[in-house]
Structure formats: structure tokens, C-alpha cells
Amino acid sequence: MKITRFITSVALAAALGACGTMEPASRGTTEPAALGTAIQALPAAAAPRYAVKGVTVRVPETLKVSEANLYYPIADIVWRGDPRGDRYAQVRTIFDTALARGTAAMASGTPVLVDVEVTRFHALTEKARYSMGGTYSMQFLLTVRDARTGAIIDGPREVVADTPAAGGERALAEEARGLTPKVVVTTRLAEVIATELTRPPGQVAPKRTLLSALVRPAE
């Protein structure tokens, strides 16, 4: 019994990640202006490999959604950055926005269609966000097709877009600077999409660059 409890405690700590303090944070609303500013701050990418002619996002309803206010619900989709509602539609909107931003400058190269299938979108519950924080765990399958022939150029392959999620007073400080959960995850996804579609084949994408600059202690 003691061994089981120890393993459970270690697993929970690893899932949540160590970040933030134990001071509670208040809820914030998404700031469109902050999102626009964050996206505009994306680092200069390599020369476009593709001219993106269209994007498609699928969020299969076979993915399990949890509304349980636990530290770490066992589910595929956990999202609290929008009012309670259709979480599949909310996640799809986030990816649509991120894809539009991340591919906005891709107008030269092979004309392609980009397909994304979300496989995981696990953010923080209220209990985790207002205490210790954790990780925004985001994964999707990426497929790039020739827009003229429909032939697959790249993929399908799994892309991991995880990024740290602040908790407690750090979350409160970020929201005061306009970095709400929706801004953070959308910006991160836009960065990852831009990187995945411009980096040379076989090159390993950085785990975190933009958010390292944006999510930092206030001076």
C-alpha cells in the first residue's frame, strides 16, 4: 500500500511539473490584443518551403473530454480557457487560429494543403492552475499534401507542442501582462506550426523559444 501511494505521488508530481507558487491566482479573460502582439513577436523563420493554400483541422470526438476539477484528470482534452461548452469546437478554433497565424507568411514554394488531427490537448484544471501549475500538453498529427496532386509530401507524423503552464502567483502575473491560457497555447502552437513547415527535413525543432521570452518574471 505504501509503495502504491508513493508511486502515485511521484506520477502526479511528474505530470503536473514543478512551477509556480502555492498562492491562488484569479481567472482572466483572453486578450485578443495580447494574442496579436505575441504572434507578431514570433522569431524570423527560415525561408518558406511551401505556399500554404489551405488548412484542415480535425478534433475527433473519440477523444475523451474531462471537466473534473482534479489536479490531473485522465483524459485527452482538458480545457478551461473558455466558458464550459463544446470543448471539441473550442480546441478546433484554437488550432484554426494558430494555423492561420503560423502559415500567414508562407506564400512561396510548393503549393500545399496542411492537415492537422489533434490527438491531445491537456491544459490545466482550476485546481492545478491556481496552485502549482504544470504543462500544457498538446499533440497532433501533421500531414502535408501537394495541393495540385493530393500526394503526401510529409507525414502523417506526430508533433509535440508541450509548453510550461504557470500556476499560482506566476499565473496571476502572466495574466496581468495579457498572457492568458488561450494566448499562451495559441502562440505556442503558431510557433510550432511555423517551425515544422519551414525547418529542413530531419532537423529537430526546438522545444521552446518564443514562450521562453514571453513568459518571464515581470521586471
Give the gist of this structure.
The protein is of the alpha/beta class and 219 residues long. The chain contains seven helices and six strands; from the N terminus they run H-H-E-E-H-E-H-E-E-E-H-H-H. It has a single domain, classed as Rossmann fold (3-Layer(aba) Sandwich).
Polypeptide structure, described:
By secondary structure, the chain is of the alpha/beta class. It has a single domain, classed as 3-Layer(aba) Sandwich (Rossmann fold). The chain contains seven helices and six strands, in the order ααββαβαβββααα. Strands 1, 2, 3, 4, 5 and 6 form a six-stranded mixed β-sheet that branches. Strand 4 and strand 5 form a beta hairpin. Helix 3 packs across helix 6. The N terminus and C terminus are likely disordered.
SSE topology sketch:
Elements lengths: L1 H15 L15 H9 L9 E9 L18 E2 L8 H16 L7 E13 L3 H4 L4 E13 L5 E9 L2 E3 L2 H9 L4 H18 L11 H5 L5
Parallel strand pairs: 1-3, 2-3
Antiparallel strand pairs: 3-4, 4-5, 4-6
